[in-house]
Every structure is written in C-alpha cells, then in structure tokens.
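Record minuted for everyone:
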Amino acid sequence: RRKGSEESCLFVFFAGEYSTANARKLIDEATANGFVLIQTKEVSMRPEDVKRVFQNSADDLVEWISKGPVIALELNGDGVVEACKKVANEVFSGTKVFVSDNKNTSSRDVDSFFNFADMQMGL
C-alpha cells in the first residue's frame, strides 16, 4: 500500500487474551482519525530477535514474547506517532505494547520489525 505521509508508526501488541481484538480496535481508532494501515504481521520472536528489533526497549520486552506471537501494525499519516502514543496511554493502558517513540526514529522501527518479519516468513 502506498504511503500518503513520510511519517509511519510501529505499534506492537504482545501476546495476551485480547491481542487480536486490540489490534482491530487500534485499526478502528487509527482509521477514524484519518490514518492509514499500511501493513500488519503476526510473528513469534526469540529473545535475540527482540534485542535486534527493539534495541533500547528490548530488556523490558523479552519476558513478554514467551507468552506467544506479537502482532505488529504499521500506521501512516502526519502526526501518527503522537496519536498512537496517546491511544496506547488512553485505550491500551493495561496492555503490553511497543509504540515508536518519535517520528525521527519511527521509520527505523518499522523497517527493523518488518524486515525481521519478512525473513521469518521466508524460513
């Protein structure tokens, strides 16, 4: 899907009872605010994958991947990173998620995750 904006955000749900429902809810929230879903993938990760993909945030996330696969979404649109952070705090406050920290590093987050996911699919 073509990106209408230079700004994309990586939003990852870690395995839990409602991760699929939460992903759907996020898509609804995002599209209602004019953002576009570019891609989504569900993959299993090992601790070394988490360190490579999430780098500085990895230590906090390693324990969560043992619970099952993660669901990652790339959302696109001007202001999408701030909007996703707001949704993470307001809608998913009790849920373990990763959200791109700022728009300067968000495209690197997206590339790191989906390059990893594409390699997993190729194995």
Observations:
- The beta strands are 8-13, 36-43, 70-76, 97-99.
- The first strand starts at residue 8 and ends at 13.
